[in-house]
């Protein structure tokens, strides 16, 4: 057991003064704000739980910036997707391992301690399985193990090219699985679970997973206590197609046809009616919000205020990784609402008038639920994940508890994360991952091998 002391710690009830944290076997054995321990190792002035990143497509980190030239006067998500397909076709297990390791180092240094990997890049570019059908999944697991980040792996079912059941397009075929083969993959990966690895399931979207396949996954027994993630209602075109062919909007249809509860994370859920917003909040599912990617793709804005007022659960993800920063995700989650309402300080609650405290606390809670693990809190029984901020940073000068999180989230772009622990192990010290240079060199070599799109 190791005993640490935080000068000020973000506990489930908010900021507390000096707290003693006992770490045993990778978990917090005790967290006590009323105890002193002379032999405790000092952590620093500002100590918080690490943030879960609830939505990631790791390979897309390497194409950030490659889709920012106009290809059509009506460029949209759908034209961006063609660039993404072209890039994905060049990525194999070795490249994916190198890209994911680089990404995971960046996540750790930014304060993310768990990542939910929504993984659909399963087969070779010609759609033939690798010699080991789990090769791409194993590349992600190996990258997480090397860097130390916690991983919720979400192998993704992808079967059709639209709500009308059309076959997958040529460049989508490497994503596809028959239902039995998909369930076998999940079963195999489930056997690898440990403190830093959770295996759930993902349904790519309603347009890519027919109702019969969705039901087969739900009936398989593999999701009874596991996270279930799905892309939904991200684009207006998706909503219109669902209405035309299923006579219901995507979230409306899912809530009526699946047992949506706290196991579920609905990623994006951008386009909701008032009724859908209230029903989603009541379900206990997590709204998985990715503001920087949603802005980059021109998706639209989630109805944040009405969702929070209805008691909805949310978390954040970096998705396509055009930004890898929980600060920027939370900042733009609030700023989008300010732009559309022309008011300030939108994301607040009855328990806190602070935007920073509201969003940080909500994202910790929702992210932990989406990850399917006991984390996101400095409390006994949770995995021992924490971050320590740079108390000497200019942005935090003269700040007390009342303004600390607001000052961190809304005052510039310098990364203030100093130290990061995951599962009781230090993964970042003084702002640097110990394998940063070696992993960056391997990443650069992999990108050179992939070549230009």
Automatic annotation (TrEMBL):
Q: Keywords for this entry?
A: Hydrolase, Metal-binding, Zinc
Residue ranges constituting the Amidohydrolase-related domain according to the UniProt record? 46-426
Superkingdom, natural source: Bacteria
- Show the GO MF annotations: formimidoylglutamate deiminase activity
- How is this protein named in the record? Formimidoylglutamate deiminase
- Known EC number: 3.5.3.13
Look up and give the organism this protein is from: Tahibacter harae
Q: Which cofactor does it need?
A: Zn(2+)
InterPro entries assigned to the protein according to its UniProt record, in alphabetical order: Amidohydro-rel, HutF, Metal-dep_hydrolase_composite, Metal_Hydrolase, Metallo-dep_hydrolases
